[in-house]
Amino acid sequence: MMKPTTLADLSQLKKEKRKFATITAYDASFAHLFAEQGISVMLIGDSLGMTIQGFDSTLPVTIENISYHTRSVRTGASHAFLIADMPFMSYATPEQSFDNAAALMRSGANMVKIEGGDWLCDTVKRLTERAVPVCGHLGLTPQSVNVLGGYKVQGRDDSSAQKLFDDAIALEKAGMQLLVLECVPTALAQRITEALEIPVIGIGAGNMTDGQILVMHDALGITARPPKFAKDFLKETGNIRDAIRLYIEQVESGAYPDQAHSFN
């Protein structure tokens, strides 16, 4: 019988300097296919607002939406480690986060993901105390697209880079057990990855992080206007299963993301 993937497994991979691949999943069929090819960590992302629901941002996504898709993914990948996004304004206060996080955990998530810096430290601490593991998300945080002024690379100047670094350290001290870094320069992602004891997963953050994640639609060439960091693995292989295996192989070897899919 297959052994469930745990946070301890991911921490061990970091200690052994072995990179791992993760991907977004939204339904049982794809979750099962991904698990069969060797993906053991999946994110039920609020990216479903754009990829599944057809909106132009993640903001309309609700806890009910994420809960529904988490249950579906859990059905298809019973042994995978599932991270579920807390959508826009579902964790504006620590108290608000409790019921919403509980709904996602009851739907089959192993961990919840929240976007933002050190202002979330109290939320992270209090969720962790209540047996809810937390994944942070720094850099380009899509729920803040209206504040950021668009989908832009973050941390390119010294002050903003230092702010991201300080936020990562503070969140880890508060109890964060995993971190996603999105759209930051490779050198900054490497600095943060080496400073933290917890695993760091990159997306558009170069190949020096502990793991990588892609939106499945980007990895399979479905997205109409894919971001710079995305690679169409299906185009290279011709079928979905081989595409996912190639993605895993290139992440584990460090071949993906290369310079063309990273930011300086």
UniProtKB/TrEMBL annotation:
Q: Which residues form the active site?
A: E182 (proton acceptor)
Q: Which Pfam families match?
A: Pantoate_transf
Supply the alphabetized keyword list: Cytoplasm, Magnesium, Metal-binding, Methyltransferase, Pantothenate biosynthesis, Transferase
Q: In which pathway does it act?
A: Cofactor biosynthesis; (R)-pantothenate biosynthesis; (R)-pantoate from 3-methyl-2-oxobutanoate: step 1/2
Q: Name one GO molecular function term.
A: methyltransferase activity
Q: Which domain of life is it from?
A: Bacteria
Q: Does the UniProt entry include the keyword Transit peptide?
A: no
Q: Where in the cell is it found?
A: Cytoplasm
Instruction: Give, as one word, the top-level EC class.
Output: transferase
The cofactors required by this protein are: Mg(2+)
Catalytic reaction(s) noted: (6R)-5,10-methylene-5,6,7,8-tetrahydrofolate + 3-methyl-2-oxobutanoate + H2O = 2-dehydropantoate + (6S)-5,6,7,8-tetrahydrofolate
Query: One cellular component GO annotation, for this chain's record?
Result: cytoplasm
Q: What processes does the entry annotate via GO biological process terms?
A: methylation; pantothenate biosynthetic process
Chain sites annotated for binding Mg(2+): D46, D85, E115
Q: EC number(s) for this protein?
A: 2.1.2.11
Query: What do we know about how this protein assembles, alone or with others?
Result: Homodecamer; pentamer of dimers.
Sorted alphabetically, which NCBIfam families does this protein's record hold?
Answer: panB, PRK00311.1
Q: Which PANTHER family match?
A: 3-METHYL-2-OXOBUTANOATE HYDROXYMETHYLTRANSFERASE
Q: What role is this protein assigned? A: Catalyzes the reversible reaction in which hydroxymethyl group from 5,10-methylenetetrahydrofolate is transferred onto alpha-ketoisovalerate to form ketopantoate.
What is the name of the protein in this document? 3-methyl-2-oxobutanoate hydroxymethyltransferase
Organism field: Xenorhabdus ehlersii
